[in-house]
Amino acid sequence: MDADTQTLPLGTALKRGLLLRCPLCGDGRLFRRFISMYERCSNCGFKFERGPGYFLGSTYINYGVTALLTTVSYVVLHFGLRWHNEILLPGLAAFCLIFPLVFFRYARSMWLSVDCCVDRVEAQEHSTSGGGKPRESKDKNNSD
């Protein structure tokens, strides 16, 4: 491996993803507010959105986790504890609507972290001058 690229161990990436931290340095926060992300890491300057539509893949993670939890819950509660569908279905339907909203940030963070393991991070994708406040996204109408 040359000095211009970095790879990340999977265990480290998953831990940082669950903590909603920068996958490269583990220090910078990913989210400014509930769904609003920083453009770059405040510590290392890593650019989080690596291309147009980059986080579309996180919807697959969100959908997969939601479907898995719903299926396991249904099987355990219906076949294991003998709950009737009239009781189960409204609760599971509500879960399917609420859980993806709560899990949104984690799905994005996990997508970014795992992608950094699979795809080498080029040196130009981050800078070492990331100190201070996280950089805000520049508006398209602003020109500096």
Automatic annotation (TrEMBL):
The keyword Membrane applies. Residues 125-144 are annotated as: Disordered. The chain crosses the membrane at residues 60-81, 87-104. This is DUF983 domain-containing protein. It comes from Fuerstiella marisgermanici. Residues 133-144 have a biased composition (Basic and acidic residues). The keyword Membrane applies. Keywords: Membrane, Transmembrane, Transmembrane helix. InterPro entries: DUF983.
